[in-house]
Design goal:
With 238 residues, the protein is an alpha+beta fold. It starts with a helix and ends in a 6-residue tail after the last strand. It folds into 2 domains: 5-88, Orthogonal Bundle (Arc Repressor Mutant, subunit A); 102-232. It has helices at 5-14, 19-30, 37-44, 48-60, 102-119, 123-146, 152-165, 185-188, 192-207, and strands at residues 35-36, 64-69, 83-88, 170-173, 176-179, 215-219, 228-232. It is elongated and about 70 Å long.
Length: 238
């Protein structure tokens, strides 16, 4: 699970608002291989010390990665110290407001389609299984955050924090917990049953792998919110 969530992506991308840093980042991206400080400084027309400062900030922000290599190819004594080189980071950044998780939807659907082809079963069934497996991982993270033998209120709070990181924007209500945001919003209009079923399976998979809580996942579609909510015990009817 990504404990930093959208905040980490925002922090990383915010550095690109600085013009010199953005120019250096784009320069590194345009190269076919890692670049040195001297090459980057010359590429954007700034002093070496200034390039060093901004390149290292891009590394701190997770946008660039560092490697060390000898450009001359010489080895052994007298070959000199390896040069510090910069390359694009493997990490991906994505920020949407309200928060969306289309990459997760794509991964789950791909697993569902692949599973259906392997087993000769309907895609809806295998997608349900993939979504429940996602929920299982979320349950493990909630248990880790809640600590050993947590009371139900603490466990529910931990579960809500995991759901919030996935983009569900939970909020307490007298009837339970509402989800103010759907992480797969753009897909709902054309694939309502598929997406709502996937959301329900994720949340049921999560609750099913936690100690009993006084809530249950139910479908309750409404304007401007997710189609799923957590209904308090005895309040399962929409």
């Amino acid at each position: 699970m990504d404990g930093d969530g959208i905040g980490a992506d925002l922090a990383g991308l915010a550095g690109l608002a600085e013009p010199t840093r953005r120019a250096l980042y784009l320069y590194v991206l345009d190269q076919g291989s890692s670049v040195s400080r001297d090459e980057a400084a010359a590429g954007v027309g700034i002093p070496r010390h200034k390039a060093k400062f901004h390149l290292d900030k891009l590394v701190d922000d997770g946008l660039l990665e560092v490697e060390f290599a000898r450009r001359t190819g010489r080895q052994g004594p007298g070959a000199g110290r390896p040069a510090k080189l910069y390359r694009r980071a493997a990490r991906e950044f994505s920020v949407t407001l309200p928060q969306r998780s289309y990459e997760l939807a794509g991964r789950l659907m791909a697993r569902g389609i692949a599973g259906a082809r392997r087993a000769g079963r309907p895609v809806a069934e295998t997608l349900d299984g993939a979504a429940r497996e996602q929920g299982r991982g979320m349950a493990a993270e909630a248990l880790r955050r809640a600590g050993e033998d947590p009371p139900p209120a603490v466990l529910l709070a931990a579960a809500r924090s995991v759901l919030d990181e996935q983009g569900y924007a939970t909020r307490p209500e007298p009837a339970g917990v509402a989800f103010a945001n759907c992480p797969f919003h753009a897909l709902v209009a054309e694939h309502t049953d598929l997406v709502c079923g996937m959301n329900l399976a994720i949340v049921e998979g999560m609750l099913g792998n936690l100690p009993p809580l006084p809530v249950a996942a139910v479908l309750d579609p409404g304007e401007g919110r997710c189609c799923v909510r957590l209904a308090a015990s005895g309040r399962a009817d929409p």
